[in-house]
Design goal:
114 residues; 4-stranded mixed sheet; STAS_dom_sf; alpha/beta; Transcription Regulator spoIIAA; 4 helices; 4 strands
Length: 114
């Protein structure tokens, strides 16, 4: 199951995901998080507490990023664990969502507080 924490800072929304991004958490993301994201102009999503992503989670993530960027909302994913990044690379997620969406932690100098 997935949970999340959000924090606004300097006009940007920071989101920290906690748990597995899988079929069990899709509904919570769709009903609770997406409405918050749609009202933003710049979003940074911290994946440091996400150890597993399944095909449902990847599908949701791709759809979400495409939807937000089509509205000219800036989206950045950071702190991806090696195991999650490996899945993204195998499935060519970067090629689908575009370059510059997944960024190194050094480009995002902020951690969401608990």
């Amino acid at each position: 199951m997935i949970d999340f924490v959000t924090e606004n800072r300097d006009g940007r929304l920071f989101v920290r995901l906690d748990g597995d991004l899988d079929i069990d958490g899709i509904e919570k993301i769709e009903t609770s998080l997406i409405p918050i994201l749609d009202a933003q102009s710049e979003i940074y999503i911290d994946f440091s507490n996400v150890a597993f992503v399944d095909s449902s989670g990847i599908g949701l993530l791709i759809h979400l990023i495409e939807s937000l960027t089509s509205k000219e909302i800036i989206v950045k994913l950071y702190n991806l664990r090696e195991e999650v990044l490996s899945v993204f690379e195998i499935l060519q997620v970067t090629e689908i969502i575009g370059e510059g969406i997944i960024v190194p932690h050094s480009e995002v100098d902020y951690q969401v507080k608990t």
